[in-house]
Amino acid sequence: MAQSTSRRDFLKMAATAGGGLVLGFNWFSAKAEMPSVVSKTVLAAGKAEFNSFLTISSDNIITIFSPNPELGQNIKTSFPMVVAEELDADWKTVSVVQAALDTKKFQRQVTGGSGAVPHSWMILRKAGATARAMLVEAASKRWNVPLSECSASDGFVIHSTSGKKLNYGELAEEASKLAVPSDVKLKDRKDFKLIGKALRNVENKNIITGKPMFGLDFHREGMLLAMIQRPEGFGMKVKSVDAAAAKAMPGIIDVVTFKNKVAVVGKSTWQINKARKALKIEYEKEGNIESSADHDKIFAELLNSDKAQVRRMEGDVESAFKNAAKVIKSEYQCPFLPHNPMEPMNFFAHVREDGVELAGPTQTPDSARKGVARLLNISEDKVTVEITRLGGGFGRRLMTDYVLEAAELSSIIKAPVKVIWTREDDMAGGSYRPSVRYRFEAALDASGNMVGYKLRGAGINAGNPTRENNFPSGAVDHLLIDSIEHKSPITTAPWRAPITNFLGYAEQAFLDEVAEAAKNDPIEFRLGLLEKAKTSPAGAVRYDIDRMIGVIKLAAEKSGWGTKKDVSQGFSVYFSHASYVAQVADVLVKAGKPVIQKIYAAVDCGEVINLSGARQQVMGGIVDGLGHAMYGNLTFKNGVPDQNNYNKYRLIRMKEVPEVDVFFVNNGISPTGLGEPALPPTGGAVANAIFKASGKRLKNQPFILEEPYAKAKSV
Amino acid sequence: MANYKLQINGRTYQADVEPDTPLLWVLRDDFGLVGTKYGCGIGACGACTVHLNGQAIRSCTLPVAAVGTQKVVTIEGLSQNGDHPVQKAWDEVDVAQCGYCQAGQIMTAAAFLKNTPKPTADQIDNAMHANICRCGAYHRIKEAVKLASTKA
Ligand code: FES
Ligand code: FES
């Protein structure tokens, strides 16, 4: 099942194999309403824009080519399910193949952001329905019976009056000679047989038997291995390199310096790793050399600066706060975080005279290809990218630094080479979740209504760390949201649920503070705001109020909100990355420390495609959100990260994981992605429950360094 | 450099490597047994777990010189057809997300269940606690270990 194929190979196969039905379609077409499905003649002519194919061979094997990098988000299983559903295929006869990236025709081949799903939903359905319609038509022609008497089911076309039936393979060749219909009927969702079921990952067998699939497993005959020493701290550059000792070590082929990097090249991972430690490199200052203590000062300045950029403003904020019966003000801060995918960065590159071959784990093969073409000053069509499976991404593999340096090294040493990052390289190598501090202010009137709201987001290389149109925007008459940024040599990048991974917690924890000040139940308080957004909105409302209410009520009901005597509960709800998620955390105090017992999640992501994959994404997102809120912490001394491996950087482990219960609204709305939206609400639900249990408000991550987990910091 | 003959998955493998080379890299670089994964190199994540005389060990911190004639089993050799009870349970429970940590998880679980065929939930927690899954598949890992214990 897990082969990979290039488009060129595929076209050759499609053109020469002769037998069977081949349809091409564009998984990420910009014109989602009008996806076009094209025949193999059009495909072979190379005229249509497409990035995926569906083939049905004469021996009844259905193959769906997935253009999308798979990093654990289950797309390689769930997307083909959609095609197979409309095709009425027998899932057992469907295989899924990863398509390589090798021409401009593969559009928008990227995994990152949960946006991939809604974009593709209609296209995938239409592709499957088109093939089905053609097979049914072929059968009606073969039997010479009216089309209306033929229907498809489980991989067969059946003639209703005679009971005759043919499998898809037997009809594929004839179907391929028919014109591709432009208008096909999609199924009614009540007739879905696959969508909404829990189907196992198509790659399970390969994973559990240890087949080579990841970038680090990639091998080419004659390939060299390299490790790269990068400046040890941010704001530093290489001053001098003494590589004599390293070069003299066994198995070392070369040591080359380029762009502040010193690469040690050899044939064995262990040998290059040892030699690399024998390098003598002096660094000098290139930019600001920052420590975490400096960041504290920087945040304090930014929060009081008058240079912030206004992101959204409603009403008259100043008077609202002046006339308020009560004002609540609070600050929340999060540290930098490395992505820490289990498979460290690595990439293979072979720069030859006639072109460049790249292979490895990337979420953005397209920008990797463009970047390498630019770097080497060659045309893009000279660069091919083979996508391996990704051992996690979390946003890190949206960056292309590790692809470019592999290509550059290969072009210098004129050899095929795989660059391997150690865990230390990976964790100290930058592109972090930015550190941010928020200041929230709320104005309550005499009856406890939130009439004024202010949020300032101050970030280090965070761009705009607010999401100014998120709830409670639209529900508060007088509102000001602004942001300000400090530029630092410490590099940052999108990190699973960019910005909202921390903003979600901070906002939901602050709203809990406000509800408490208003002497209102946290859920009632939010429902009141949503009611206000519905009946008299303050400016644009950029979220679906009813869907948000839907998940709030579902979470309250399933968690027994307000009815439990034995545990303390905390609530949060967040709309991000196109889905709605509400969570309730149950907390108990044991031996003076709050212990998270259980987390309930109510999720509205529209139609649930693969129930197994969907539950897994939500549970994984919650574990990730909880783990990083509790423990994640990357600090700096003089530009150098203090943590560079798992002995110093704490990731959540099995015993720290509470029970998680997931409930889907499943309302049939077009599906949205699930890789991200379950993460942002978790920290808030947990912090709010811990407050109820212990009376301590957690305002900074990681929680483990705060009361009630740690002693109060001396002031 | 020295020559080592290793007993892996019921076969003899030979490598010319330096004595301090961790078993992990000999498996991966010299023998092409890449199912065993590198995660941290310091014994802190469990991605590199293999069996040494039936016990789960971290191959990233075990020098090849210390292996001798002890029997090594890697994920590739856990079963002939991927049908070890732990592997079957992993498929049935649909554990894997990115999948990178799973070989190490499976090897840890298989050695654990051999010593503790009918584990309690706490025993499972303790046995699996040292294996990191960055994707957070812990719930299903636990469920799969439980299921595997009913299959053996
Ligand atoms: S790679 Fe051996 S324990 Fe992490
Ligand atoms: S499945 Fe990705 S690290 Fe465990």
TrEMBL record, chain A:
Q: Which SMART domains match?
A: Ald_Xan_dh_C
- By what name is this protein known? Molybdopterin cofactor-binding domain-containing protein
What are the Aldehyde oxidase/xanthine dehydrogenase a/b hammerhead domain coordinates in residue numbering?
Answer: 209-287
Q: Name one Pfam family in it.
A: MoCoBD_1
Q: Which InterPro entries match?
A: Ald_Oxase/Xan_DH_a/b, AldOxase/xan_DH_MoCoBD1, AldOxase/xan_DH_MoCoBD2, AldOxase/xan_DH_Mopterin-bd_sf, N-heterocyclic_Hydroxylase, OxRdtase_Mopterin-bd_su_IorB, TAT_signal, TAT_signal_bac_arc
From TrEMBL, chain B:
Has the keyword Metal-binding been applied to this entry? yes
Q: Does the keyword rRNA processing apply?
A: no
Q: Where is the 2Fe-2S ferredoxin-type domain?
A: 2-78
SUPFAM superfamilies to which the protein is assigned, alphabetical: 2Fe-2S ferredoxin-like (SSF54292), CO dehydrogenase ISP C-domain like (SSF47741)
- InterPro entries for this protein: 2Fe-2S-bd, 2Fe-2S-bd_dom_sf, 2Fe-2S_ferredoxin-like_sf, 2Fe-2S_ferredoxin-type, 2Fe2S_fd_BS, Beta-grasp_dom_sf, Diverse_Oxidoreductases
Q: Keywords on this record?
A: 2Fe-2S, Iron, Iron-sulfur, Metal-binding, Oxidoreductase
PANTHER family, per database record? BLR6218 PROTEIN (PTHR44379:SF2), OXIDOREDUCTASE WITH IRON-SULFUR SUBUNIT (PTHR44379)
Name this polypeptide is given: (2Fe-2S)-binding protein
Q: Tell me which species this is from.
A: Paradesertivirga mongoliensis
Native organism taxonomy: Bacteria, Pseudomonadati, Bacteroidota, Sphingobacteriia, Sphingobacteriales
